[in-house]
Amino acid sequence: MLQKIRWSLSLIAVLVVVIVAFQNQDAVPLTILFFSGEYPLTLLLLGCSGVSFVLGCLMTAWRIRSRHKAQSARDSKAKTESNAKAKKEDTSAKAASPPSKKKGLGNNRSAEESIGIDQEAT
């Protein structure tokens, strides 16, 4: 809904600029630095409006890009902190649990010994 309102207001603004520009077709003198001459007011109004539109688009794109960069940095920082917290919890859980016996050649017992069955009794 808000997007439709924006488009409607933008369309009305463009129409107002075009109507005002074409109602003022008189030639006016223009001097900018070393550049001077007489130009139709229509051309000047439409030119200034076009330049303003382009500058507004560039500024909006710059703000969106900087906002996106800031959001990416926040997400990256949160992910890094989450990973560090998970690692810390994992290491503390490993430290709290008793060390497990690894089966190797020096610590090899038969299944009967591990469950307490006496081989000679059978």
TrEMBL record:
Domain Lipopolysaccharide assembly protein A: 23-81
Superkingdom of the organism of origin: Bacteria
Compositionally biased tracts (Basic and acidic residues): 72-92
Transmembrane parts of this sequence: 43-64
Claim: Cell membrane is one of the keywords in the record: yes
Keyword DNA-binding applies: no
InterPro entries, alphabetized: LapA_dom (IPR010445)
Location of the region described as Disordered in the Swiss-Prot/TrEMBL record: 67-122
UniProt KW keywords: Cell membrane, Membrane, Transmembrane, Transmembrane helix
Record-given protein name: LapA family protein
The organism of origin for this protein: Rhodopirellula halodulae
